[in-house]
Amino acid sequence: MSDLTGELIDGRYQLIRQMATGGMASIYEALDTRLDRKVAVKIMHSHLAQDEQFVERFIREAKAAAALSHPNIVAVQDQGWNQNGTPAIFLVMEMIEGHTLREYLNEQGSLSVKDGIKFLLPVMSALSAAHKIGIVHRDIKPENILISKEGRIKIADFGLAKGPLLGGTMTAESSVILGSVSYLSPEQVQRGVADSRSDIYSIGITAFELFTGKKPFEGDAPIQIAYMHVNNRVPKISSVVAGIPEPLDDLIYRATSSNPDERPRDATVFHEELSRINQTLSPKENQLSLELDIPIEPMRPKPTRKSLRSKVKELTQSIPTPAPRETTEEVRKRKKASKRVRRNRKIALAMAVIVGIVGWYVLVGPGSRVVVPSTVGASQTEVSAALDPLGLTSMVIEKQFSEEIPEGHVIQSIPEGGGRIDQGGTVKLVISKGAERFILPAVAGLTPEAAQNLIGKLPLVIAPLAEEFSTTVPKGYVIDSNPPTGEKVKRGTSIIIRVSKGIEQIALTSYVGKSSDQALNELQDAGFVVTSTYAYSETRLAGEVVSQKPAGGGTADKGAKVALVISKGTAYAYIPNLFSIDEAKAVQALKDLDLKVVVKKIGKKSVKKVTNVSPKVGTKVKRGSTVTITVG
Predict the structure, then answer these.
(1) Which of 347, 500, 620, 626 is deepest in the core (most CB within 10 A)?
(2) How much is the pLDDT for 366?
(3) Where is this region: Disordered (predicted)?
């Protein structure tokens, strides 16, 4: 992607300079012209914007970060598609002026135990907030840990994040490509799966580098390093450098175990153990809260919050009190001054109370604002899991049909994901009723008008009537609809009502005198059902049609039956000359003429031949008659 410096994104974000570029996106310093503040704008490379998988991953990063509200996580403020000027998918984040932990390590080398713990505690605090709502970062490394000018630690780049509101599961191949192999857990390399314990492994490797100044495994190729994590055990820090307290050494050794079950189960457990170790090492320091960041040297001194009692004391101590006099005049003046002092003390006390109330309201009370996580597409159970840790509740204000969002899942939230709401506030939800569908009523057998009136009661479009022939539905009545009765259809679907034109009439030709083969083929092709019988005929040759019913010359219903009588030939036969023919051949010749045969035998010859025929040879006889032959 070319440098977009100077462009106005989404009519709001003026790009000032390109700060960094990577394989997926470039990051710009920008000015939010609406709120007049500096922001960081992440813009996806244009060639990747055509790839749905990368676009989904980019949007997933926005949802992942927007679902979290924590002082140690880089806040996502906006996300969208720039349609004015250069088309671009963008993500707007808070501007962190400072450097990465990678840059800090490159400059400082390894850190002391005290300073290393100060880095790890806020990182674990941020990850704890993510793990509580089921979000796994999947790409913890020094490059994604930022240090502001004020010394605040922040986690960035939730681009590989996975959780109940984010959708999508990376494959083993994509995880190896997109993740950073030096910090990937063995299960991510082998199976492409990750949970909170995978983040613990990555932070354990980061801790190893913090205290030793180097990574546990080095290699010439990324795949070589990745499988070192699978096949080798990360050594104890104490085997590399001296002076590491045993509890800290053991904690990081467990965190980098190849077996996820041996690691702390999530960032909250890790943070608690690390806090106890820190308390043991520095007993004068208070137990550290998950919600506080730890100042990193050198830093500006962090202001302490004064109690209401101390504020009142300071204000009241600043009011002068006059010294007592013995004269009546001075006594009178002293009493008057005393009244002023009491009045001023009351004013000071009231001001202190107001300051305290305002501070409480803005910092921890209802006035504090919480970033609303993205809940579009989530179930109400998932919404509760995301909102409860933030102290927020939800309320369904409306249910709508949706073609994209399943029934019972969120279509819209008010405020939307990434917006802010008062602490303890209620996020209003619009819930999907699922896809809107209408069941087509039964219209078969109705008149077209009745069918149109029935379907017209639904928000559907009735197409022009379609007339068709039908052998079962009388002319002028509805056959059915398309789509058919009982089908569920969308609003606005076009419905065709099919109306019967009655039975189709087919021209019927007379086939009397024509061959039976021609008659059968043509009648069947026309759609008639043909039946055939055979009879003798003195006028038609064998195989010709003697008669047909219905007779030809008019029309008949398609599918009607046509009966043909086919000639078997003449009903008479002539007695053939059978003299001197073997008995068997003579009998067969007569049977072929449909004649009955009686055989009379004379003499004692073994081979018998015909010696006489009755009736005589050449006599015309009716088929079925009896012929007597004599053999001997």
Answers:
(1) 500
(2) 47
(3) 299-338
